[in-house]
Automatic annotation (TrEMBL):
CDD domains (UniProt xref): USP-like
Cross-referenced SUPFAM superfamilies: Adenine nucleotide alpha hydrolases-like (SSF52402)
InterPro entries reported for this sequence: Rossmann-like_a/b/a_fold, Universal_stress_UspA, UspA
A UniProt-annotated Pfam family: Usp
Family per record: Belongs to the universal stress protein A family.
Domain UspA: 1-141, 222-273
Name used for this protein in its record: Universal stress protein
Amino acid sequence: MKKILIPTDFSKYADEAIEVGAEIAKKNDCEIILIHMLELPGQMNDALTGATSIPEVMLFKRKAEETLKNIKNRPYLQGIKVTEVVRLDGAYHGINNYIKQHDMDLIVMGSHGASGINEIIIGSNTEKVVRQSETPVLVIKNKINNFKIQNIIFASDFSKEIKKPFQKMLDFTKLFEAKLNLVMICTPNSFKSTSAARKIVTDFVADFDMPEYSFEIYNENNIEKGIINYSNEKDADLIAFCTHGRTGLNHFFAGSISEDLVNHATKPVLTFRI
């Protein structure tokens, strides 16, 4: 792991993500890229070609650059190589474009989640990045004073399509020398016998150099609730999950378990796109 991207809107949620990113960077001697997307008011954005708008745009940009420099000077970032980036773009599109243009190993984002009508129609920028990013995304939901990953929950159906992201998850697990808890959530609509589930997982992990791990089947009414309840029972430090990155009507009707977890779980969530 060499480069960690941390988007910030200067909120407390972003600050919590920066603190976690700093701890990961120190442990692995990584560079941090702090990026702020300067979303201009609609009327100003429409008038960008006009000369009168340029001074005001530059003022906003300088203010954002000054704020990033102040963040860079915080004590917990001392000794870490930090690069500041300000871009004139929408939050989600700007972050996604930057990811495509640069080789990032991890994205760390803060989130306050979404609920009700906002969750259905708007969604958060964090969950949009989770849906589309081919780089692993670590979502921080609450302030963590001493970020340690000792106990990871990885929930899956252990199908063949997740083998590539599963290797990335193993690399992350080994990086932190964490214990890995594999779990298959069985619901009324996706019931499997214990023997059948064990065979699926045994065959799946046979292709990997596995660290210390355990496997359990957990029964619940739905997958999201099962993952959250199981992670709480195991006192997990991190929930890991693979996402399909659905978009458009397919995403609207099928939904996304990873986005539900980003919105509703209180523990950090690490997502890998299939």
